[in-house]
C-alpha cells in the first residue's frame, strides 16, 4: 500500500451518499438501456400473450354474462365455485390425474429401457432409435387418425390381430371404462421416443471409470443399474417427469379427434373442458375460471421444478 | 445369437456374457417393431384398393393389386395443397420473427449487464412452463380485439417470443470469444453490426437446431389454430386433416384416411430421414418447446 492512498480514500467515500442514490439509479438505468431495447420485442410478446393473458384470465374469471348477448357483470368467485361444482370439471381433473400418471410412468419406464438398450452407438441402434422416435415427429392429429382405425371395433387393427385372443371384443373407444386407457396408449406411443433422447443424453454422463470399477468388482447388470446408473440419471428423471406432466396437461388433440371427451365424459381432460366451455358453450367466465385453476396447479409444479429448470438454462 | 454377439463385440469384456442386457435389447427390438406398425398400416392401407373390402382393411400384408386411388380421393376431398401452404406460411412467419426476437434477447442475456437481469431471466423461464396452449381463452379474446381473428397472423402471434430460443441463443453467444467482438469494436462496429456480422454467422448450428424444433412443433399445432381459424381456406394441415378424417370416417373410407394422413406427415418424415442426426441432437437440446 502506498502512502498516498489512505489519504485519498476517506474523501471519496464520505461524500453524502443519499443524494447519489437517484443519480446512481438513473446511471444504472442508462447503462442498461441497450439491453432493454434488445429485450423489448420479446418482452412485448411475453407481456401480451403470457403475463397479460394471465392477468386477463384472473379478470375474466370474475365476470359472467346471463346470456351470450347480455352485458358482463361482476360475480366475484361465483365462476370458480360453479366450475368446482361442475361434475364435468371435477371428472376432467380426476381423468387428467389418472391420465398424467398412466402416461408418465409407462412412457418414462419405456424410455429408460430403450435408452439402456440402445446406448451404444452403431448402425443397428441408430435405426432402432429412429424407429422409436418417429411418432414424436408426427402431429397428434395424424396419430389420432391412425389410431381411430387401430381401435375400430371388429375390423380395426387391434381386434383383427389381438382381439381374436380375447373372449369378448372390447369397444376400445366406446366403452367408458376403457376409453381413457386407449387414449393413454397413443400418448405413450407418441412420447416414449422423445423421453428416450434425454435418457440417452443422461447416460453419456455416467462415468466410464466407475462402470469399469463396478465390472471389476463383479457387479451384475441390476446392481449397476440400481447403484450407479439410476443415481446418475436423477436430474434427467426430474426433468423428464416435469415435461411428461406438462404434456399430460397440454396435449389434448387426440381427445378432440377421437372421442370429443366421451363416452359420457370418460376421456374429458381439463384443457378440453376449457375448450368446450369457451368455444361450444360461449362461457368465457367458466372457461377462465378453469384456466385459472389449471394455471395455479401448474405454478405449483413450476415452483417445485424451478431450480431444475433454471440450472438447465444456465442460471440468471 | 451370432448377430447379437456381433452387436456386443465392443462392450466391456466382463459384461459380454450377461444375459439381462440382451433380453432388454430383444424386448426393445420387439417394441420398435410394434412402434412402427401404425406407420406400416398407413402405407399398406393407402395402397389397398377399395375392392378388398372392409374386412381386409386391417391386413398388414400389402395388397396384390396396389392402387393410387386412395391418394387421388384424399387429394380431391381435402384441400391439401392449400392446407400445406397455410401451414408453411404459419411456420415460416413464426420462425422469421422468432429469429429476430431470440437473437436480440439472447445477446442481451449473454453479453450485457443490466438492472433487473435476474427478474427478467425468471420472466422468460416461466414461459417455458406457461405454454401458450394453456392460455387459449384469453389469447383468443386478445387476437379478436386486435382484429386478427380468422387470420394466419393471429395464429402466429402468441409464439413470436420464445424463451427456449432465447436461452439457446444465449448459450451459443456465450461460447463466442469476446476478443472477436473487441476487434470489431475497435474498428467502430455498432452493436447491431457486431450482432449481425460476428454473433449470428458463428451461431448457425444453434439457429438450425432451433428452426427444427420450432417448425416441427408449429407444424403439429392443432387446438390454437382450430380456435383462431374459421374459414376453410385458411386451415392449416392439422385442422384440415381433422375435418377430413371426420368426413371420411362417416363413410368408413379408411384407405382415404390413411392416404390423407400420409400426405400430412410425409414432409416431416422425409426431412427427418434425411437430417436424422440433426433432428435428434436438436430435440435433445429442446426439452420444452
TrEMBL record, chain A:
The protein's UniProt keywords, in alphabetical order, are:
Cell membrane, Membrane, Transmembrane, Transmembrane helix, Transport
GO BP annotations of the record are: transmembrane transport
Q: Which residues form the ABC transmembrane type-1 domain?
A: 93-305
Cell compartments where the protein resides = Cell membrane
- CDD domains per UniProt: TM_PBP2
Instruction: Specify whether DNA repair is a keyword of the entry.
Output: no
Nuclease in keyword set: no
TM helices/strands, residue ranges: 33-54, 97-118, 130-158, 178-201, 236-257, 287-306
GO cellular component annotations, sorted alphabetically?
plasma membrane
The primary site where this protein sits is membrane
Which membrane topology term applies here? Multi-pass membrane protein
According to its UniProt record, which protein family does this protein belong to? Belongs to the binding-protein-dependent transport system permease family.
Q: What is this protein called?
A: Carbohydrate ABC transporter membrane protein 1 (CUT1 family)
TrEMBL record, chain B:
- List all membrane-crossing ranges: 23-41, 83-107, 119-140, 146-168, 198-219, 253-275
Which domain of life does the protein's organism represent? Bacteria
Q: Name one GO cellular component term.
A: plasma membrane
UniProt membrane topology term: Multi-pass membrane protein
Q: Where found, per UniProt?
A: Cell membrane
InterPro entries listed in its UniProt record? MetI-like, MetI-like_sf
Q: Where is the ABC transmembrane type-1 domain?
A: 84-275
One Pfam short name: BPD_transp_1
Q: Give the SUPFAM superfamilies listed for this entry.
A: MetI-like
Q: Which CDD domains does this one have?
A: TM_PBP2
Keywords, A to Z, come to: Cell membrane, Membrane, Transmembrane, Transmembrane helix, Transport
A GO BP entry is: transmembrane transport
- Cite the PANTHER family for this sequence: ABC TRANSPORTER PERMEASE PROTEIN MG189-RELATED-RELATED, LACTOSE TRANSPORT SYSTEM PERMEASE PROTEIN LACG
Q: What family is it from?
A: Belongs to the binding-protein-dependent transport system permease family.
Question: What protein name applies here?
Answer: Carbohydrate ABC transporter membrane protein 2 (CUT1 family)
